[in-house]
Amino acid sequence: MAIDRETGWAGSPYSLRLKDLSYKMPGLLTLARSTGPETGGEAGATSTMAALRRTPGLVAAAVAVFWLTAPAAGGAQAATSPKPVASTTRATVARTRPAAPQRRLTAAQRAERDAAQAKFKRDLYGNLVPDVRAAAAIVYDPGTGEVIWEENAHVQRSIASLTKLMTVTTFMADAPDLTQQVTVASSDVRRASVTYLRAGERVTYRDLLHLTLIASDNGAARVLARTAEGGTKAFIERMNQMAQHLGLTNTHYADPSGLDARNVSTAYDISHLIAYVVGDDRIASIMRKPSYQVHTSRRTVTIRSTNKLLGTEVDVRGGKTGFINAAGYCLATLLQVPQGSQVAVVVLGATNSTLRFWEARHLFNWVVGRSQGVVGGDAGGGATAAKR
Predict the structure, then answer these.
(1) Is the pTM here over 0.90, yes or no?
(2) Engineering a disulfide at 379: which of 142, 242, 316, 368 sits with its beta carbon 3.0 to 4.6 angstroms away?
(3) Are strands 383-386 and 118-122 parallel, antiparallel or unpaired?
(4) Per DSSP, which regions of 296-370 are E strands?
(5) How far apart are CA 116 and CA 294, in angstroms?
(6) Which distant-in-sequence residues (6+ apart) come within 8 Å of 270 by Cβ?
(7) At residue 276, what are phi and psi to the nearest 5 degrees?
(8) DSSP β-bridge partners for residue 324
(9) Which residues of 279-318 are buried (b: 16+ CB within 10 A; e: fewer)?
(10) Which tens digit of pLDDT belongs to each residue from 210-260?
(11) Residues in a beta bridge with 300
(12) Residue 156 in contact with residue 315, Cβ under 8 Å?
């Protein structure tokens, strides 16, 4: 609908363009007003032409405007009764477009619904196996050493904050005094992306460990490395030595936080690492906490876990999340099978945060269902089989 901002009413395109022409031809605006708002569209144009025929001096101009402004197909838009421009526009938008937060909520709900639907496919032998929506994934039984299922598990990828599993493991290997306080440096928090710390604050190693594992605090991971023996460079070397010691042959670290995309590993290596790390209850007990209060020399801060599997029906023995653009959304976790063993579930390169947690749940449910003889392992709800 065309709006005449000068006259204050809404009319057809014919009326507006006749009005524009009337600046040079007095009398045409009055004629346009008399026909445009009330009738509008093709009918309005016809009435206008009829009236112009009774005004010989304006016939030629009106005919020219009619042909220049007529729509190519379907006629002009229907006109409405005269209303102020702003109120008409706001009312139309309010009726036709949902508010931005509502649209975002709808998209989030749709993503949650889609992620909650488990997907399966047939393997080369005709078996129904998980069809994971991620770049790589694995289900590994550390008790037997069996890889129960995997996809692209040996492809080296950036691992983001899954790096912190090795950061904490390397730090704890030095048997530190967890009550010792250290001072946060400016370099620790500069461009840290995610950190609760501030330069100049003093904080204990115990709180730094909680920040690193629960809140995935990059500044805290940097403090651990910088204040360890030999400083950050020597600490990173020890991280890589630890990886070699654990047989993680496709794993390499370039920084202690995971912000550096050169920190790489595979789903296979990470599955072995998470199983090893959870074996140390000093670390595992921290990863199982949904929240924690950090006390610095200046303030108290409540942090909450980034691991959304905590608090669900799944028995989480330990886990760590990770994300940077190069890695996508990642999750490494060790889960307890009811009346069974523990399994390491790793998901790398999911396209959104919701999906990584749901895919881990789907894989776990598949393992549980498989152990119970359920076809497709669908022990936890609906599933979709993809034709491949």
Answers:
(1) no
(2) 368
(3) parallel
(4) 300-304, 316-324, 328-336, 342-350
(5) 34
(6) 159, 162, 165, 251, 332, 346, 348
(7) -70, -45
(8) 328
(9) eeeebbebbbeeebebebeeeebebebbbbbbeeebebbb
(10) 999 999 999 999 999 999 999 999 999 999 999 999 999 999 999 999 999
(11) 295
(12) no
